[in-house]
Amino acid sequence: MALSGIQIYKLLPQTNCKDCGFPTCLAFAMKLASKQVELAKCPHVSEESKEKLSEASAPPVRPFTIKSDGYQVEAGNEVVLFRHKKQFYSRSGLFVRVRDSLSPGEIKEKVEPVDAFEADYVGIELRMDGIAVQADGGDFGEAVAAVREVTDLPLILIGEKDQIAGGLQHLGDDEVPLLAQATEENWQEMASLAADHGFPLAVEANDVDQAVALVKKVTDAGVEDIVISPAQRSMHGTLIANTITRRMALKENFRPLGYPILNIPGDVGDLDREINLAAQAIGKYAGFIVMDHFEPALAYPLLVLRENIFTNPQEPIQVTPGIYEINDPSPSDPVLVTTNFSITYFSVANEVESVGAPAWLLVSDAEGMSVLTAWAAGKFDAVSIAKDVKEFDAASKLDGEMRIVLPGHVAVLSGELEEELPDWSVKVGPREAVDLPNYLKQVL
Fold first, then answer.
1. Are 69 and 189 found together in one domain?
2. Are residues 332 and 260 in the same domain?
3. Which of 328, 318, 340, 303 is nearest to 118 (CA)?
4. Domain with 296 in it: what CATH number?
5. What are the CB-based long-range contacts (under 8 Å, 24+) for 71-78?
């Protein structure tokens, strides 16, 4: 049974030594009770207390990482069912599957664009997370080797023990793949392979009872890091299986289901259903998602959806401060100013983009607040704007007259900004973003 923060505090040294990184033992106890830190951070806890606290302090969803050279995908460590209560911590890993029935050339041709894909989303780099290699009657080792020739992204290896073992020789020394899948028929062989190498193992089950039984078998066989893979592939079946698994782990603290979840939308064989299943899996608890299709136009909305779901709901969604180019601006185009609150940024950027007007957009660091809120809080003023103009070297992007346009709501800053930026021509734009297109056409 989970212990309260006060109950945990009574088992700690109560010295307030700060060696754990928290100011007091009580603060550490509260974090421990909410599963946000590990007991190991306290170097002075007694062995007796450690034994009593070990179960209570373990995260309800066991965390682990699969990794390769320079890349990793973290899973588990979640403590809530709904993101409005607290942040989700481990982003769903998006993997693209290749089958060993393809030739090495075909495999490379499919993997190369996945590895090369990068997209900028308000200053955040979006990428796919890895490749899944599926045994399908071909040479599994040759398939893994072909993948490794073009990418270092983490791997999920799907097949039987002997097939997967043939692919392991092509992995790096420190690489940790996810092995899949252990079933009622092959769990002994798969558990032996995973335990021998210390790799995580996915168990595929038709229902919750079967999942619990398989988890017990593979843990007894020495496997610690487990992924639960529901056999369901329909929207409804996947939703129910994922939700029950996660609710039992978080609400009931039921350890046999306290593991990350693997969904394989690629199995449905229909592109539209695959994308819908992947989107649902991102929103409903999947730690790993395996897809068969990859196109930048399909990957981008899924990655943006994931980014939005896995933000901290207690902090505003922010855009990375900097200078953004809109419609390929020239050195003679104006610099528009706004704050780094994402809704504010998109309101301004979308209006300017919609009419094809070229402009530079200076996004000032206002701690994620909107223009008026940041101005009222003293986070968006002439000094901070001038500081960002200089920090991001806006002048180097322009020649001739250097024009900077303030949001109309903070027109009062124009005089102060002229003093801070004497070489600039300070303009006052409209109060609302919707009026920017006419302003850019008629005034500038």
1. yes
2. no
3. 303
4. 3.20.20.20
5. 71/129, 71/130, 71/152, 71/153, 71/154, 72/154, 73/129, 73/130, 73/154, 73/288, 75/227, 75/260, 75/287, 75/288, 76/259, 76/260, 76/287, 77/35, 78/246, 78/250, 78/285
Q: What are 339-387's pLDDT values in tens digits?
A: 999 889 989 999 999 889 899 999 999 988 999 999 999 999 999 999 9
Residue pointed to by tokens 């027109």: 411
Is 99 a domain residue? yes
133-169 in b/e burial notation, b at 16+ Cβ within 10 A? bbbbebbbbbbbbbbbebbebbbbbbbbbebbbbbbe
Please tell me the distance from the alpha carbon of residue 261 to that of residue 247, in angstroms, as a whole number: 12
Q: For the chain, how many structural domains are there in total?
A: 3
What's the DSSP call for residue 208?
A: H
For residue range 227-276, what is the model confidence (pLDDT) as tens digits? 999 999 999 999 999 999 999 999 888 999 999 999 999 999 999 999 99
The secondary element (H helix, E strand) that includes residue 291 is: strand 286-291
Per the DSSP assignment, residues forming a β-bridge with 325 are 360
Location of structure tokens 């101005």 = 375
The pLDDT confidence band at residue 2, using thresholds 50, 70 and 90, is low
**pLDDT value of residue 62:** 92
* Both structure tokens of 346: 């998109």
Domain that includes residue 248, residue range:
64-309
Residue 324 identity (one-letter amino acid): Y
> What type of residue sits at position 238?
T
What single DSSP character describes residue 79? -
Phi/psi for 221 (5° steps) reads -85, 0
Residue 120: both structure tokens together: 């900028």
pLDDT in tens, 283-322: 999 999 999 999 999 999 999 999 989 887 777 778 889 9
Q: Do residues 254 and 334 share a domain?
A: no
- Is 251 found in the same domain as 174? yes
